[in-house]
Design brief:
- The structure holds two protein chains of two kinds.
- Chain A contains four helices and eight strands, in the order E-H-E-H-E-E-H-E-E-E-H-E.
- The longest helix of chain A has 18 residues.
- Chain A is of the alpha/beta class.
- Chain A is globular and about 50 Å long.
- Chain A has a single domain, classed as Rossmann fold.
- Chain B folds into two domains: 134 residues, 3-Layer(aba) Sandwich (Rossmann fold); 151 residues, 3-Layer(aba) Sandwich (Rossmann fold).
- In chain B, helix 1 crosses helix 12 and helix 5 packs across helix 12.
- The longest helix of chain B is centred in the last third of the chain and has 20 residues.
- The two termini of chain B are 24 Å apart.
- In chain B, 47% of the residues are buried.
- The chains are: A alpha/beta, B alpha/beta.
Chain lengths: 184, 311
């Protein structure tokens, strides 16, 4: 967890549940069903979010949509400038994405660079019919022409602020916090 | 864990954590290698040079492919057609390559210690692809990766390595690597090729293959370097094959479904029979595939981040 003082709680556990449930409904609505759908979580916190969306869709549509995991480390555009050597993890998309509707899922949309890397990583797996993007929080400050198709919460922030998404599966806690970066 | 090394020279001084990190990274790389479109942008703009002073098919090609899959530009220098044949020293050749701003140099050389010699001078990273009778670290890593893939946790497993251990850098690297991972290692071969001095590696030494096989989970045959017979280290190929060649009947003595490895190239009918080499338990082609994944992992770990980029 990054260092900072908590300014406010943006979403609590119920808030996250409602937002993710709504996204699940919107995904099915916009894609007119679940036929060609594949959910792909971006490591790390996109993965539990994708699993939840899969579960919600199963509850109200009775269909288990295929689920994949994407690791974008090898597609980052800052590999040659960051100091710490990022550890790569496995990408696991168990079905062919050829001609399918892929929904990429991540926790926060910020500069758009992760989404750019995820788009490239997805394209290297095949040629989907379309790719959509779902995020729990859109905090603005895009550096690339990228937008999300499904947003849990739009949250205008300053660059000094930090959005901390904490999910039970990863962090043992469930909320979205707005923090102020501490001067170092 | 943060990766610290500039070079991969030997398994001997590597920690278990480092070996684990390489194996983990190779698993990711293998998934990429098995894709229909196996190409990444990761090392765009990085250059890798293969400098091979000895013959090689699989090691050189797999380093070349590994670099290419990761998006690096790879070049191979055929020593016979290079300035080396005009008498250029290893040091000068290496400096020339460095002056061309190579980020990574892969070296195979008949002298033990040559990879370390280069690594000490060059700012670029160096990977040892086999130096004399010293080590061949990438081979040991791909061997253990292949064993793990088939058998899972290797702790307490029994490996028998049979053949010309004396001249084998593969055997030496494997002895270090396997023992670090908790594997029980036995070297088998005629006393001339498995001399008592090898006890320093910490492995068991025997000269009777049939007595050693019971209980072996993995049997690894080494290539018999045929030129050794001329120097009188064993009487005849036929006798060697009779005593140490892997055959289907002989492998039954392990008492289990053992797997068979061979670093290649094979002398069929000498250290390994055709029916063993082509059986389902022989993972020799899988070793080659995994070799590309291991080398991708190493290239990524050495030049994937900024820390070791040549200024």
């Amino acid at each position: 967890m990054e260092v900072g003082t908590v300014k406010s709680k943006i979403l609590d556990a119920d808030g996250i549940r409602r937002a993710v449930t709504r996204i699940a409904h919107e995904i099915v609505e916009k894609n007119k069903g679940t036929d060609k759908l594949i959910l792909v979580g971006i490591r790390r916190r996109g993965v539990p979010l994708a699993e939840r969306i899969q579960q919600y869709i199963e509850e109200f549509e009775g269909v288990k949509v295929p689920l994949g995991i994407l690791d974008i480390t090898l597609y980052r555009d800052d590999l040659s400038t960051i100091d710490v050597h990022p550890v790569v993890h496995e990408t696991d998309v168990p079905v062919s994405i050829e001609g399918k509707s892929v929904v990429l899922i991540d926790d926060v949309l910020y500069t758009g660079r992760t989404a750019r890397a995820a788009l490239d990583a997805t394209m290297d797996l095949g040629r989907p019919e379309r790719i959509q993007l779902a995020v729990l929080v859109d905090r603005g400050h895009r550096e690339l022409p990228i937008r999300a198709d499904y947003v849990g919460k739009n949250l205008p922030t300053s660059r000094r602020e930090i959005i901390a998404v904490r999910l039970q599966e990863v962090d043992g806690d469930e909320n979205v916090l707005l923090l102020e970066r501490e001067e170092t | 864990m943060k990766w610290q090394r500039k070079d991969i020279l030997a398994i001997e001084d590597m920690s278990v954590d480092e070996i684990q990190q390489i194996l983990h990274t190779a698993k990711v790389m293998k998934e990429i290698l098995m894709r229909p479109i196996k190409k990444l942008p990761t090392l765009k703009g990085k250059s890798v040079v293969n400098l091979f002073y000895e013959a090689s098919t699989r090691t050189r090609t797999s380093f070349e492919m590994a670099g290419k899959v990761l998006g690096a530009d790879t070049t191979s220098i055929a020593v016979a057609q290079s300035s080396v044949s005009k008498g250029e020293s290893l040091l000068d050749t290496a400096k020339t390559i460095q002056a061309m701003r190579a980020d990574l140099v892969i070296i195979r050389h008949p002298s033990s210690g040559s990879a370390k010699f280069l690594a000490d001078i060059l700012k670029a990273g160096v990977i040892n692809a086999g130096d004399g009778q010293h080590e061949h670290p990438t081979q040991a890593l791909l061997d253990i990766f292949t064993m793990q893939e088939r058998l899972g946790d290797l702790e307490g497993k029994k490996v028998v390595i049979v053949g010309d251990v004396l001249h084998s850098r593969v055997a030496r690297s494997n002895a270090w690597c396997l023992q670090k991972m908790g594997v029980d290692v036995t070297f088998v071969g005629p006393p001339t090729l498995v001399p008592v001095e090898l006890e320093g590696l910490g492995v068991k030494l025997t000269h009777n293959l049939d007595d050693t096989l019971p209980g072996a989970d993995i049997v690894m045959a080494l290539r018999l370097q045929l030129e050794r017979q001329k120097s009188g280290l064993f009487p005849s190929l036929r006798e060697y094959s009779h005593l140490y060649g892997l055959t289907v009947d002989r492998l039954k003595k392990t008492g289990k479904q053992s797997i068979v490895l061979h670093p290649g190239p094979m002398n069929r009918g000498v250290e390994i029979s055709d029916d063993v080499a082509d059986s389902v338990d022989a993972l020799i082609e899988r070793q080659v595939t995994n070799g590309v994944a291991i080398r991708m992992a190493l290239i990524y770990l050495l030049i994937g981040g900024s820390s070791n980029v040549v200024a």
